[in-house]
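hey all, quick one before standup. I had two proteins in the batch that finished overnight and I want to keep them in one place so we stop losing track of which output belongs to which input. First protein below, input sequence then structure tokens straight from the run.
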Amino acid sequence: MGVLSNLEPKEVFEQFEALSMVPRRTYRDEKISDYCAEFAKRHGLEYVQEESGNVIIYKPGTAGYEDSEPVILQGHMDMVASKTLDSDHDFDTEPLELFVEDGYIGAKNTTLGGDDGIALAYAMAVLASDDIPHPPIEAVFTVDEEIGMGGAHALDTSLLRGKKLFNIDGEEDGILTVGCAGGTVCTVVIPVSRRHRNGIKVTVTSRGYVGGHSGNDIQKQRGNAIKDMGRLLHSLSKKIDFSLLSVNGGNAANVICQYCTAEVVMSADRADNFIERLNDLVCTLKNEYGDSEPGLSITAEAGEVDDYSVFNWESTVNTIWYLYGALDGVQAMDRHVEGAVESSLNTGIIVTEEAFCKVTYQARSSVASKLEEMLQRLGLWSEIVGGRLEVESSYPAWPYKPESELRPLMVEVHKELFGDEPRIEVMHAGLEGGILMGKNPDLDIVTFGPEMLNVHTPGERLNIESTARNWEFIKEVLRRLK
């Protein structure tokens, strides 16, 4: 018996639990891609498995729907692989450990992969069914969405005949998303010169931040562990002479950073003063956050006195100045959609190597010129400290489509099924719709999905009741598309 075997709708949760047994972190999609191909074979369905790993599965329309226009059901295979600091879970080899609690599904000490395993579960439930009326189905499962949306970039849209596309990658029930911001993943590379220094090593560790999705949650003013580390080090450097040894934190460009560790070296007689001043600064920081960061913990631990290969004075100053001063968070609110974010920047990852310190960002904007302007400002900051900006990937915005046929139908069905009108939104987070629309402007795309909480974090949860509501919604919209 599976953990989800008693939940309804059984046909959806059966698929979701099976998917949760298959490792599928971003850039390691091989197993889940093969699983999807094998699913098609088991059900006697035609499919294409692209070189990129994308899988398209075709199912004919049911009786009376054979000649209807195909409908595309689309979601991404990969998931953000985030876990608690005390977890030893191996995302490359181990299944997720699911549990049910208070009406939600979660995974023990890890992300759940509801983003976007639920899309695959819905689509597979339709593909496996023999009692759901529907037009011909083209189920599109893409790889590597979470970092750069590589699967959508690689997808051969000439393999698709349908124009109406359900992108089941939403996270709030009752919301239909019909556009999204464009975005860029980029890295600032700060050169590091080292010297030998004899002294005591002090390790500063910040953890327990709420974190969240840098598109959906950036406006909530949640703490960023990398930025706070920069602030703490900058303040301490005014009073105490120390050298950086390393700064590391974060696990994804599009996740608001939840943890960061800095190693510094100083004279042994300065360590107690350093830790005392740090604790005072942490009290100030916690006071500013109030109840919004309940799990926040920042500690310092003195280690051994030894000879260390540390950043030289200039590299220490440049790195701390950069971390403290560079852009982060919401840069502008939308001037046309009340309450929506127009432009933002998230400091997602910092990694220290022997000769470089690398800081990776997710930049987003619904205005192309504002996205470019943010990158120029980041580039200017990097030049000030002798570094450089490297753009790794970009994706276009998905513009609102006034003449949509799919959107008004889905609004009508939602009102009839649930008695209320769904909210229509343009999303700040990047969605594959932007890339797919760029490949085929004739597509009519709507993004939706069940309620999920704390995506991209070990606190990710999938609402069971909301999953059932959206299943009824999907089936009824398919029935109307005859």
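OK second protein, same deal, sequence then tokens:
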Amino acid sequence: ERAKDESIGHFLTSYFGPTVESTEVIDDYTVKITYTRPYALKRDDLATLFLLPKEAMADIATNPVGTGPFSFVSYAPGDHLELARFADYFLEGQPLLDNVDVRILPDPQARVANLLSGDINVSEGIAESDISRLEDDPAAKVAQSPLGGYWHTVVFNTERPALEDKLVRQALNYSLDRDKISQLAWFGLAPVTQGRYTPDNFWYHEPAATMYSFDLEKAKALLAEAGMADGFSTTISVSEANRPGSKALAQVWAQDLATIGVTLEIIEKEQNAFYDDYFNEDYDIQVYLLGDGLFDPATAINDSSPLRPEENRANIQTQPFYEEYKKLVQDGVSTIDPEQRKPIYDRIQEIWAEESWAPILAFSLITVGLSEDVDGFALPPGGGYDLAEASFAAD
């Protein structure tokens, strides 16, 4: 009911609102959900519906209560979060740890230094530049998500001058030297791709995933066709704290764009401003990371602000392709038969490529650094993890 309540701005309203007709409590451990139609993402949606006790809602923001293996102790904004073992956790014998202290360290280098010194045991947000360093150090090790769940993109605000033109967006796609960007921005550790799937995945669609090449002459011809033979100027927003390597990406791209008359101004932003400006649609081009670690084609559309039809931050609702795209997205989750869904998502991927509002550059491997004595840590496809089975190796 909370997820369906538009008045509170629940993050799952657009999922549950049009699909769930009613719910009925059967007993203390069972609820019956009646759907309005066949719907392919029932389990995925329920997995993201975090359960909270109704009686805790009054002060949930300052005293959070959920269903996890650890309970809330204290939080110092911008500094740290303290958690303690929850003795009544529903999985017997878990968690193994007595306490967890989450420290907020925005600087990627500070996180690595703290990890190697033994001051912390788990570090999120490991940059590609630091992976080999951790792998070579006996004091540390790394865990990585499976390939294909996340990908690097540049998102175009399609309401901005020049970027509203499909031909211009296609020209910019042709101007992306993905191989050079991967080497210089991500140390060759981000496999180059134009599509969101690996070729061995059921949902892979080769025509869409191979539509572009690095071709500055083609890019220049498309700009001329769009009436911009003399080029234009635009900006790109980057945040190293949010996405390490994004500045190098922008620098490589800016050099190539300059050869075809396009001036790309790089604007570096702190993490909060980076997100605030993006969600306020105050940007031209934004270096971004998309994906949710899941492999159903619909989930990444639902979970991606430049791809979903509702509240789209790339403003595609102003584009001629929008109505077809919106219908395809709806059709894609209205059956559970993969063979019926495949041509729908093939066409969606073709629209992504043809319209080029969020060109994909490379896969991203979510990497977590660990101290060498951490046992039982697993990084699932979604990247998020819990520490219920984590422990320290015996000396």
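Flagging for whoever picks this up: The two ends are 50 Å apart (CA to CA). The CA atoms of residues 238 and 247 lie 6 Å apart.
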